[in-house]
Amino acid sequence: MASQILVCLLFVAAMSVAVHCNSEGDALNAWRAQLMDPNNVLHSWDPTLVNPCTWFHVACNSENSVIRVHLGNANLSGPLVPELGQLANLQYLEVSDNNLSGSIPTEIGNLTSLVSLNLQHNQLTGPIPSSLGNLVSLSFLKLNGNKLSGVIPPYLFLLIQRGNLIVMNVSDNMFAGTVHRTNLTVTTIIQDPRAS
C-alpha cells in the first residue's frame, strides 16, 4: 500500500512540474507567434515539447523552469507580450538590439525574480510601467535607445535607494522632467527633445 501511495505522489509531482513547464512554454510560444523572425533564430521553439528548456536562447534551472531568455541582436521585430509576465522564475530577459515595438507590458512587473531587464536599442514606445517598481531583485535595467516617453516612475528610484538597482540606463528616449539629486544618485536631467 505504501509503495502505491509513493508512486501516486511521484506521478502527481511529475505532472505538476510538466504543467508548470508547459505554461512557460505556452507563454514563450505566445510571444513567438507575435514576432517576425527573418533569421529563423526561434526555429527550435517547439510548443509540442514537454518544456522549453531545450530551446535555443532559453536557459532553465534544476526544476526545468525558465530563468533566462537571451535574444540580443537577433533581428526580431514585433511586440513584447503580456504572457512574459507568467515566467515566474525568470531572472534575465535580454532582448537588446532588435526592432521590438509597442509598449512594455505592465505584466513584466510580475517577474519579481528578475535581475536584469535589457530592452535597449529597440523601438519601444509609451511610458515605463509603474509595475517595474515591483522588481525588487532587479540590478540592471537598460531601456536606452528606444522611443519611451512620459516620466520615469518614482518607484524605480526607490529600487536604487534600496541598493538593489545598480545600473539604470534610460538615455536616448523621449522622457520629460528632471531627476533630482539625492545622496545615492547623481543629478540627471531628462528633457523632451521636442522642447528644444
From TrEMBL:
User: Residues in domain Leucine-rich repeat-containing N-terminal plant-type?
Assistant: 22-61
* Signal sequence extent: 1-21
**One GO BP:** methylation
So which domain of life are we looking at? Eukaryota
> Which UniProt keywords are given for this protein, alphabetically ordered?
Leucine-rich repeat, Methyltransferase, Repeat, Signal, Transferase
What InterPro entries does the entry give?
Leu-rich_rpt, LRR_dom_sf, LRR_N_plant-typ
- One Pfam family here: LRRNT_2
Instruction: Output the Gene Ontology terms for molecular function.
Output: methyltransferase activity
Q: Name it.
A: S-adenosylmethionine-dependent methyltransferase
Q: Which organism is it from?
A: Hibiscus syriacus
Please spell out the taxonomic lineage of the organism that makes this protein.
Answer: Eukaryota, Viridiplantae, Streptophyta, Embryophyta, Tracheophyta
